[in-house]
């Protein structure tokens, strides 16, 4: 699922001379470290922010994400709950807490978080929450509902990679080869295709009878990812196709 990070400081959190509070400064620092994968200094900064101002909502929201990444789920939920209690309308917290709840199998609670986040007309990243809602629907084997969410995400942001990937996967599972082709073409415009999607391309174009496109995907898969699982599948598949 897709976690959203922000170190934005609410208007009321600045000091009178316009400078950041210590808690907001350390939250920004911690989020910056987290984005770089530097979890130890991130934890140090965010713990400091929480100590400096236990009512500073962004600090709890950010440290919850960090605890989740570190696999410390009890601590993650503790801080998600605190962040939610401090600001039950913060869309980033609602998104992140929602995906946490979904991964824990608490689907109704997760859906409530996602729905509340999407009601915010000023939310700048609705495609993230729509995609997470779609992924949560897939966990519940609600594929049609997931497609509805992914399409909404792509309506907001037509180049949003996580939603494009999921739509390519769903069309592949459904053997909707034209759909696979369309989503791979869109995905290729914004991101190099991974072995998984190059393999989808080989099979889709073979089914659609476009040998040139099929060969192009196969060549990219062999050249870019020769040691991948999909490259091995390609070798076996080509052997069977040639009757050897």
Automatic annotation (TrEMBL):
Keywords: Repeat, TPR repeat. InterPro entries: Pilus_4_PilW, TPR-like_helical_dom_sf, TPR_2, TPR_rpt. Pfam families: TPR_12, TPR_2, TPR_8. SUPFAM superfamilies: TPR-like. Coiled coil: none annotated. TPR repeats lie at residues 23-56, 57-90, 127-160. The keyword Repeat applies. This is Type IV pilus assembly protein PilF.
